[in-house]
Amino acid sequence: MRTNPHILEINTRSWLRRLSEEYGRNFTLSDVPEDFLNKVKNLGFDAIWLMGVWQESPSARDIARNSKEVQDQIRAFKPDFNTDDISASPYAVYDYNVDASLGGNEALAKLRERLREKDILLLLDFVGNHMALDCPAVTEHPEFFINTGMQEPSVHKDWFFKNANGVYIAHGRDPYFAPWTDTAQLNYFNPKTREFMLANLRRVADMCDGVRCDMAMLTLNKVHRDTWWEFIGGELPKEEFWFQALENIREDHPEFVFIAEVYWGLEWEIQEMGFDYTYDKVLYDRLRFSNPEDIKGHLRAEHLYQMRSIRFTSNHDEEEALKAFGREKSLAASVIIATLPGARMFHLFQILGRNARMPIQYAHDEFVVAEDVRAYYHKLFTIASAPAFHGGQWSMRGLDSAGDDSFHNILSWQWKQMNTGKLVVINYSASPAKAHLSLKGVQGEVTEEFSGRKINISAEMAAQGATLELLPYESKIFTYTV
To answer: Do residue 335 and residue 395 come from a single domain?
Structure first.
């Protein structure tokens, strides 16, 4: 996988459903059209993250189908939806085997081999914090989960459910939100639980090339204690689960990729445990809600932190980029993501121009492809796949005023690799902007990649610099000889 890799997230069930409707036949993971895989390769993606391949939980499916919230979200776009098209949440894992409806483990193995032939890695989910509330271990090994035995909890009764044997077991939860009622909360203060989940992780690692670890910070000792202190006490285990797990997996899979979904300022701590990449939700929020100066401040963070961050403007947890940002701003934000150091993640439905998010449990996402949006992303990926964006040296570029203060709204950085330079300039505002641009060291022909326009830089222009004028949310990427 290249430095600064491109990762494509795919909602597996919805994707296979769309392929089946497009080709007029049913697909499993074993017979995905070669044409699709070739497109992924040609767009320059280094890895595919197949979200939601694990065995479906019957109880979680029933909960989703009877959820007013899920139904209302679907009904807003498809009033006559069929509840049979609602599946369990992919994050209420019943078992770490590929669901039979997707072709099972053998189908995944065939797809992995086809991806490997194209030098594309396969990434899957690992949900460390919880399992589905009806997974076999809930009945067979209730001690793996936070529980109060046969005694009803004296506090937070709504956090618990009874398993088939009458044991009160906690639902999984994030301390800032209500419990996920389709899940059972694992107890990481129990060494046997750690052995159980490490065995699951080893199983997953034999089936793919990397994992995206859901809500990874919830299993940190201090977070686990602070979330569940009434039920597990306050003495911390001597070692963090993730440190133990990553070290163990890499004994047999030294190049295995670990990506952590993590928030609350714990990104660096998780990186220190050995994760290759951690979510950069701060950048997402600043791109969506803040001004260019705040974005510049964030990008001045320590370089190693930048290289180990995974950037995105869309994923299954966030509103679709076209709706969250608006069309022009979302495309400008994607140029930012595609040209920064670190991993660059894009959702398949984002690229196809889906204009609003459906619940992840709904497998019949019938939106019409926005051809103009798809064409823009294809152009962007072609540009951002150039070697300089993956093996070059990145640095921020300063800009000067060209007569007013609008230059503050322009983001700019450069990549240099051997004799090739890439200059990125983005007006990240809803108003026109202009700036004076130094051209020191630039001479000869310069190509603007989006338009294909060629510009000849004379010695005089190189000495004096140039004024660059940009429309609202306009992006330009210049290629030049160093």
So the answer is: no
**pTM for the model:** 0.96
- The verdict on residue 138 lying in a domain is yes
In this structure, the answer to whether residues 281 and 377 fall within a common structural domain is: yes
Report pLDDT digits (tens) over 330-380: 999 999 999 999 999 999 999 999 998 999 999 988 899 999 999 999 999
Instruction: Please give the structure tokens belonging to residue 36.
Output: 């699709």
Same domain, 463 and 325: no
- Residue 88 sits in the same domain as residue 219: yes
Same domain, 414 and 335: no
Q: Which of 387, 412, 447 is the last residue of a domain?
A: 387
Domain count along the chain:
2
Residue-averaged pLDDT of the chain: 95
Does 402 share its domain with 372?
no
For residue 459, pLDDT over 90 is answered with no
**Burial (0-12, 13-18, 19+ Cβ within 10 Å), 375:** exposed
